[in-house]
Amino acid sequence: MPSYVALTYTRDVDWTAPEQAAEMQEYRDFGRDAEAVIRGGAALYPTQTATTVRVTGGKGGDVVIGDGPYAETKEALTGFYLLECDSLDEAIRHAAAIPAAWNGVVEVRPTVPTLM
Amino acid sequence: MTATDAGGTDPAGALAALLVAERRRVLATVIRLTGDLALAEDAVQDAAISALETWRRLGVPPNPRAWLTLAAKRRVIDLLRREGARPNKEREAIILAVQRAPDETPPGIVRDDQLRLIFTCCHPALAQEAQVALSLHVLCGLSVAEVARALLVSEATMAKRLTRARRKIADAGIRYRVPDAGELPGRLGAVATTVFLLFTEGYASRSADAPALVSARPESSVPPGSQAPPGSAALPPPTAPSGPPGASVAEEAIRLGRLLVELMPGEPVLEGLLATMLLQHSRLRARFDGDGDIVLLADQDRSLWDRSRVAEGIELAASAIRGSSIRPERFAVTAAIAACHALAADAATTDWDAIIAWYDVLLALDPSPVVRLNRAAALAESGDPAAALAVVDRIGGLDDYFWFHATRAELLRRLGRHPEAGAAALVARELTGSAAQLRLLDRRHPS
Prior knowledge:
The complex is a heterodimer of chains A (about 120) and B (about 450).
Chain A: E1 3-10, H1 21-33, E2 38-43, E3 51-56, E4 62-67, E5 76-84, H2 88-95, H3 100-103, E6 105-110
Antiparallel strand pairs in A: 1-5, 1-6, 2-5, 3-4
Chain B: H1 11-34, H2 37-58, H3 64-82, H4 88-100, H5 107-121, H6 128-139, H7 144-150, H8 155-172, H9 184-206, H10 249-263, H11 268-281, H12 307-323, H13 330-343, H14 352-365, H15 369-381, H16 385-394, H17 402-414, H18 418-431, H19 435-444
């Protein structure tokens, strides 16, 4: 069974803030409705909490830690779901029910199957 | 059996005819069985090559399509056993499906196979240009080189584009299926848009709009049914024996439109699509004069219009409008506009009010600058160039569009504002994509 991630890109929000309660409820509703196909996922803290990690000079080189996202963008990665769907069409159908689809955009990507 | 058993049938000719008429059907069946577009394409291609060899030795079989289908199925199994990439379980499942398939596919499934193939090639998750390329290659059977020529890109670019599209279909899990009722309206619209894009690409590559075109020729200069010289290749090209590559793209689009109407009768969007294409294409021979110069609709010799296509187009347009709900399909409306033109004996007796009214409907569905420009042109033809110019001057977003400036120049000329007309023509001149467009400006706005 192929898997997809649905990456939600919306304005950068703090999901823990009280004013997000109503929207969080919408996400919980989606989570309940799509329970059968959701295999995982998370809401992400805002982009200011992001840390970039880079190793310079190839493997084993210096670890360079950076703060935050690369650039201020209008739409930030704010969460993701792992969906187990039979086809892209099915994944699209579920993605269209994620609130981010009307508050921003949802990117659906197939995952490479683990070769086991 | 000996070669004489073939009753004098030429194997290469029989194969070429079979590929034109049935290749898509055979391919569609093999894709259903394998679920793999690239594998099915390879198998059908190899089967065609072996058909030519075998038929030359043993004669053309009584049922060439069944022969080709069987050969393609056997080839699938060969190819699968040879390639190592696929998990064993999947490989065995495909082989089993291929072996178990009946020799003759029931008609209902043949229909669905073809629809599945069309909906896969026109899946909205594929880039529009990939959909167009796939449609020409997979649905119409043009070779990669022919598709590249038709769409004015290099063969290497086209090969890459097609490979990327096939990979996306496979990796992203675009399934070979007909959308269900809930998805269907949106997906039908996507199919119609792609087929229409194919149609306009055909126009662009053949006629007035091709860049650096040395001689734009009307289609009438292309002998119908002309083919590659006989004996030029061992294998006949798996394409329709129509005009030179590129010239037949609009015809291919019409053929696809016809197939769609046949497969899903009574769908206003498909009837409207086919009607729009037929009505526009019916004027082809009148769109250029003997020197390859553009003849605008108002000046066209209407006796050159293809009457049978006009009649068919009008009938389909009427059916598309009748079948439409309160909110008509975009293509039903474009068909209605084209039908209004087709019904008029000449430009002067055209029912411009009806055309303007249809443009208002179209604007409600698609409030784009190009539609606004076309509505303004109709307004000018109805006798009010001043009002038309006022509308045109308020349209934004068409600064880089040849016809925007050419239309402005024409309106200004009609209003006697010659210096401004000349200036607008100058801007249009900078944006022209073809020699024919330049000559049109030269004739209208001699400097």
